[in-house]
Target: DUF4164 family protein
Amino acid sequence: MAAGFDDALRRLDAAVGLVEAAVARRLDAERRRGDLETELQIMQDDRARLAMELDGAASRLGQVEAATGDVERRVGRAIDTLRDVLARAEPSETD
Model:
């Protein structure tokens, strides 16, 4: 009878060991899942921040392009005016 009892204790001890190992694996998986969820949230926050920064940069680029076009038109008009003035001034110098 003592042999049967010892055998039952060994089986119980083995079963408890298996349960402990399963619990440890489950806790580890939950910890990793929590780490992944945290990392995903950080990445989503970064993505949202970068999207806002990109929108702002695109807006500023549009403003710079508009200002560049305005400056280009003004410089073109100034060049044309100078050419007209120089063209009118040349014949009077030869007179």
User: Anything to note?
Assistant: Residues 2-94 form the longest helix (93 residues). The two ends are 139 Å apart (CA to CA). The chain has a mean pLDDT of 91. The CA atoms of residues 23 and 63 lie 60 Å apart.
